[in-house]
Amino acid sequence: MSADAPADVPRDVPGDVPRDVPGDVPRDVPGDGAAVGFDLRHHGDAEVRGADAGLTDLAVNVRAGTPPGWLKARIAASLDGLAAYPDGRAAREAVAARHGLPAGRVLLTAGAAEAFVLIARALPARRPVVVHPQFTEPEAALRDAGHAVERVVLDERDGFRLAPEAVPDDADLVVIGNPTNPTSVLHPADALAGLARPGRTLVVDEAFMDAVPGEHESLAARTDVPGLVVLRSLTKTWGLAGLRIGYVLAGPDTIAELERVQPLWPVSTPALAAAEACCTPPALAEAARAADRTAADRAYLAGRLAEFAHLRVCGPAAGPFLLIRLPKAAALRTRLRELGFAVRRGDTFPGLGPDWLRLAVRDRLTTDRFVIALSKALSETED
User: Fold this and answer.
1) Which pTM was predicted?
2) How many Cα atoms within 13 Å fall on the side-chain side of residue 235?
3) 141 within 8 A of 119, measured Cβ to Cβ
């Protein structure tokens, strides 16, 4: 597919696998990401590795300037206990209390990404469906576990908002993000809860929900939605991607099934200390303030991007990132790297294409520097 092809023309999939088009739910064969037309294993950190580590990072959605000093101190203090095996009871209780749930509804994991692997391995699914565009790791994990995955691809013309009628009634495993990476769309909690069915597991990835002021569309504390599994991450707001800490919230039976396929001592002692620390009232208050700042900085970024005539911002946005569409995005991304900025390519997400980029929200000074580089890169690529 040419780099200048329109984003709404789906990539061709090798063999007999159907292409993804808005509203379709193609049934795909198991296999790795390259076999289904998209690089499902590409993530934003690939943009800032090795020699590119010095680029200004707009590709990774971890909050800048983190972890804070007090959290580093708590993690460092835990190192004195490394001779003992990890004991997750206190952290599990802390996460449960943070959401007003019993500890039996909590499973700590090595980041939210591990949870997708556990779900793929532990939970039976005859017809799993992943709602796209979204984080690609859930589909990759399902495929690696031998599942034939179907995609519901949301429509750009509807702002990538949930179309519940597009989800097959007999889908027994449905995965959706909220707010969704990379679109930054926040779906109404009631609309997501409406996807629940008897015999269906509904997985809602809330990895970025703590970046939403008030978390007003979260399902984390809900116990009345049958088959609900909520995934949360502590890596984005607190800058702990290298530590790997997240958790699953679900019914006790589901938690037990996931725990059975989890390795022994999967979460390290420092990660457990971090989880406990991030659930204290002062930490939650700090996260709430950070969410407010992110929302203000996102609005500022969107306003600056509106200065460019041929650039479209997907919105309204609710996450700590923006999805943008513009011509020649692949060439633009390369030129931005030369000018010192790393941005996330969009063509690895089913439902998007080569005209899409994702930008992490940063402080206003960084945004202003980026806009200068973007203006220069656009003027050059338009020549």
Assistant:
1) 0.90
2) 21
3) yes
Q: Are 232 and 207 in contact (CB under 8 A)?
A: yes
Return the bridge partners of 255, or none: none
Q: Which of 201, 285, 212, 281 is nearest to 248 (CA)?
A: 201
Instruction: Decide if 278 contacts 238 (C-beta within 8 A).
Output: yes
Residue 103 CB neighbours (<10 A): 17
Spatial distance between the Cα atoms of 17 and 182, rounded to a whole number of angstroms: 24
Other C-beta atoms closer than 10 Å to the C-beta of 1 total: 12
The one-letter amino acid at 41: R
Which tokens belong to 377?
Answer: 């890169």
User: Chain-centre distance of CA 74, in angstroms?
Assistant: 26
> Which residues have C-beta within 8 Å of that of residue 289, sequence separation ≥ 6?
none
With b for 16 or more beta-carbon neighbours within 10 A and e for fewer, the 68-100 pattern comes to eeebeebbeebeeeeeeebebeebbebbbebbe
Residues belonging to the chain: 383
Among 5-9, 159-163, 198-202, which is the least confidently predicted range?
5-9
What is the spatial distance between Cα 285 and Cα 300, in angstroms, rounded to a whole number?
23
Task: State how far the Cα of 276 lies from the Cα of 274, in Å rounded to an integer.
Answer: 5
Token code pair at residue 253 = 């039976």
Q: Kindly report, residue by residue over 132-179, the tens digit of the pLDDT.
A: 999 999 999 999 999 999 999 999 999 999 999 999 999 999 999 999
Is residue 375 within 8 Å of residue 311, measured between CB atoms? no
pLDDT confidence of 28, banded at 50, 70, 90? very low
Range with top average pLDDT, 8-17, 40-49, 126-135 = 126-135
Whole-number Å distance between alpha carbons of 103 and 250: 10
User: Distance between CA atoms of 124 and 122, rounded to whole angstroms?
Assistant: 7
Per-residue pLDDT at 383 = 60
Token pair of 77 as six digits: 């203090």
Between the CA of residue 283 and those of 78, 92, 215, what are the distances in Å?
18, 16, 15
Q: How many whole angstroms separate alpha carbon 179 and alpha carbon 182? A: 9
103 DSSP 8-state letter:
G
